[in-house]
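Hey, I'm writing a tutorial for new members on how sequence and structure tokens pair up, and I'd like a real worked example in the thread rather than a made-up one. If someone can provide the structure for the chain below, I'll link this post from the tutorial.
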Amino acid sequence: MEMSDEMLYKSTRGGEKVKSARAIVEGLAGNGGLFVPESFPATDIEELAPLDYIGQVENILSKYLTDYTNDEIKNCVTSAYGTAVFPEGPAVLRDVCPGISTLELWHGPTSAFKDMALQLLPHLLTTAMKKTGQDKEIVILVATSGDTGKAALEGFADVEGTRIVVFYPSEGVSAIQKLQMTTQTGDNVEVIAVDGNFDDAQAGVKKIFSDGPLAEKLAAKGFALSSANSINWGRLVPQIAYYFHAYTEAVARGHIKMGGKINFAVPTGNFGNILAGYYAKRMGLPVGKFICASNANNVLADFINTGRYERKRAFHKTLSPSMDILVSSNLERLLYHLTDGDTAQVAAWMGELSSDGCYDIGDKYLQRLQEAFHGCWVDDRLTQKTIAKVFNEHGYLLDTHTAVAWLAVEKYQETSGDRAHTIVLSTASPFKFTDAVLGAIKPESQTSDVFDVLSELSGLSGIEVPPAMQRLATLPVLHKQLVAAAEMKDALLNVLGGP
């Protein structure tokens, strides 16, 4: 087996070190922490530059998944990112206007950036199951604010040795997102609505993962739980690659010189996407600032600006529902790195968040945080105004999440004077949020049927509706179950054959 220096993983809350295959199979550490790499491997960007996207992903993964062979990594990556899955390419850089480009990450089967990791994770997981001798059926448990659910369902449907159960907030996703999930076929899939918001669904899933007696009961039935949320290292590690890809593309187009700094703006909810960029920076990518863009649920923007995380606040349903999150799971990983691996401190903060609903990292760690991140939030009115402005001035159509990040860039540049070339991560097709996008560029429209809205938006923008979305009109709804957040555990047990 060809291996580089061995990379091990530990929980953000302490405990034993494990290899990557075990971290990916388990998803969440037994003590409730998240698996993090022991170190950040240095990366030669000039060596990455000539490689295509698949080659760049293989290079990055080989540094982190050192218990996988080179052939195993190659097989996983080529299966995930071929033209059959991403006809236009996995990560498409668009130069929208001088100084700002977008990185479109939504050209996969579900038209959202979650495909970038969730087309790969099933291959990484099934390989890891063989490597760890896992003989139980893996139950993938997912809480989704809209995009992760469909992308995970698409990736894991009918994958041998797995089942997948997705919980989504009943009124917290767009009409298209709901249809994408509730029409999902597959003998091993189950989709369940939760009467509550995303945080309720996420808290329920975390509670299930930390339930020791439940794990024993499931093991006796031949099941083992794992996660496809970004708490799983196998979800997060593929995302590092597209930051390097965006940088090498920007160099090739002359936006920056090799070694020059670039900024990234990321619409952020659960913090996994932007954290992958931070990991790329720790590996040597020359990033000046990560602009963390929030909607009215601005817990992250406030945290970056003050050092205080406060989840006890009003929850807002917004036009960018995938960011309607008040408890950002992946932030725990960042806290681990900011404290140089002080697991006791991280565990204490997470305890305070659980008991008091808040924690404060203090001036020392706030300074470290602000060296890399800038926080900014944008309300719905300005989100729609930005969609209209960018479309009218540049002929480019933003979805509601990408629009939040775009305006965050403009606000940051105005207040900081930093004019470094900036790449806005475009996380979803505008057709996933048609009502809001159409309402922004044609507020007088009276169209209400979701599929008529798709057609009208396509006609106005000149962009073809993704074929998979067109097909939703003819697909039957297969998943209709609705449960209270307190009933999620029982619902899972019923899916798996009863108590």
